[in-house]
Amino acid sequence: MSGEQLGFGFEEMPRRLYTCTPSRLNTWLDCPRRYRMTYLDRPAPPKGPPWAHNSVGASVHNALAAWWRLPEHERSPAAAVALLRRGWLTDGFRDAAQSARERDRAAEMVERYTARLDPSDEPLGVERTVATRTDRIAVSGRIDRLDGRGGELVVVDYKTGRHVLTSDDARGSLALALYAIAAGRVLRRPCRRVELHHLPSGEVAVWEHTDESLARHLRRAEAIADEAADADAAYRDRPPVPRPRSGEAPDHAPFDAQFPPRPGNLCSWCDFARHCPEGREAAPRKEPWAALPAEV
Ligand code: SF4
């Protein structure tokens, strides 16, 4: 049955539900060209080399997730160190010595962090996927840890980067707010508190959302999704564009109206900078280990 038979004109047809993760929405905000190369171009353009800081982050996240999956009596700081060492990821480091130094630093981080945890304080979820939808978006994502405290849910996100985070970071995080909304709906319990656990410093940045602040984040997510969905539709309906031959730079011109580049400092960290002349001009690409703490 067509839209007109159903009683509405095409211009009033309901929008297709936009399926996304917080990361997809943030990529659209950061740079529509990067969004296109990440989510739409197929085959996707080859990415640059892996980042050492991503290896550190993934190794620490994996170790902490595995630690919570141990039987309670085995959850010791030494066990966290052993898990970290066993699952250490080595991509992106300058050499074996740098990888070993970072592994030792990460081992200290998880040891310190787990020493402050109560192993009997069972989380309600570890790396738990939650999802929710409105009439415009279907959003899903994976929460590092979901705690139950005093009848409410708390979203916990681990951070391993150099910069200490503040309550403003927790307050402004679209991802954390969407996780809180989704977790609250899935588990049918209030979920307003979001926490960023910064492992290098041991600091915890906290924000207590209100129903209004969560609703604001959701409206923002819908507005971002509307823009991205329009661009997705234009991409799907575009006339065919010849694929670049192997080794040839992609021609961005046919896409730039919907997917403009947004050159700036972040281009140094963009996985697709090698395919983007504007980005390379804006900021030189960093070495894969550039985000690690300075060696002393
Ligand atoms: S290099 Fe910069 S402008 Fe180019 S795609 Fe990446 S983020 Fe966008």
Explain what the structure shows:
Strands 1, 2, 3, 4, 5 and 6 form a 6-stranded mixed beta sheet that branches. Strand 5 (191-198) and strand 6 (203-208) form a beta hairpin. Mean pLDDT is 93; it is low at 1-11. This protein is α/β, with parallel strands linked by helices. 40% of the residues lie in helices and 16% in strands. Helix 1 (22-30) packs across helix 2, helix 1 (22-30) packs across helix 8 and helix 4 runs antiparallel to helix 5. Among the domains are: 49-122 and 262-296, no CATH class; 125-218, Alpha-Beta Complex (Lambda Exonuclease, Chain A), CATH 3.90.320.10. It is globular. The site of iron/sulfur cluster has 14 residues, from helix 2 and helix 9.
**Secondary structure tally, helices:** 9
Spell the H/E element sequence.
Answer: EHHHHHEEEHHEEHH
| Overall strand count | 6
Average pLDDT rating: 93
Principal-axis shape? globular
Bound molecules: iron/sulfur cluster
Query: Assembly type of the shown chains?
Result: single chain
Major sheet details? 6 strands, mixed
Helix content: 25-40%
- Please give the radius of gyration in angstroms: 22 Å
What gap, in angstroms, lies between the N and C termini? 69 Å
What structural class is derived from the secondary structure elements?
alpha/beta
**Uncertain spans:** 1-11
The amount of beta strand, in percent, is: 15-25%
